[in-house]
Amino acid sequence: MPSFVITEKCDGCKGGDKTACMYICPNDLMVLEPNDMKAYNQEPDQCWECFSCVKICPTQAIEVRGYSDFVPLGSSVMPMLGTEDVMWTCKFRNGTIKRFKFPIRTTPEGQANAYADLKGNDLEGGLLSTEEADGMALRGPAADQRA
Fold first, then answer.
1. Which residue from 54, 55, 65, 62 is spatially nearest to 38, judged by alpha carbons?
2. On the chain, which terminus has fewer CB atoms closer than 10 Å, C or N?
3. Cα 17 to Cα 60: distance, rounded to the nearest angstrom
4. 48 catalytic residue (yes or no)
5. What is the pLDDT of residues 102-138, one digit of tens each?
């Protein structure tokens, strides 16, 4: 289910040129309605359901229904972005609320470990470079199983 804006909660990021959800949407779907000063998803069919707009919204006015493998149908999912983690609140149809906290990357932009000294043998190999470094070998079919 694509993102949708709860208009009662949306304040248009207090009248700026660009709202937080407009800034963060990787598909440029969020727009600001100039008369009401409320954001909305202009093309719900194109929404990737990445939760970026939901996480960044300062008034928690945007929701995306969770996938059924994450929460049961009819449940709502609301992330709350902190400085070091994201708190996910799942509200189930029966009213039960569960919260899960996951850390977020706190590495400054451009300073993530690039593993400069770790090189794979080639791009066509069947192993990841970390698997090669650990000495793993690609297993093939046993000789006695061939027809």
1. 62
2. C
3. 19
4. yes
5. 888 777 767 777 777 777 777 777 888 888 888 888 8
Among candidate residues 23, 28, 48, 101, the one labeled active-site is 48
pLDDT in tens, 43-102: 989 998 888 898 889 998 998 877 766 677 777 778 887 888 888 888 888 889 999 898
Under 8 Å CB-to-CB from 96, ≥6 apart: which residues?
none
Strands (E) located in the chain: 4-5, 30-33, 38-41, 62-63, 76-81, 85-91, 97-103
Instruction: Kindly report the pTM of this predicted structure.
Output: 0.61
Identify the CA nearest to 39 among candidates 60, 10, 17, 64.
Answer: 10
Do 53 and 21 meet the contact criterion of CB atoms below 8 Å apart?
A: yes
Helix (H, G, I), strand (E, B) or coil at 121: coil
Q: What distances in angstroms separate CA 11 from CA 28, 59, 76, 121, one per listed residue?
A: 19, 8, 22, 53
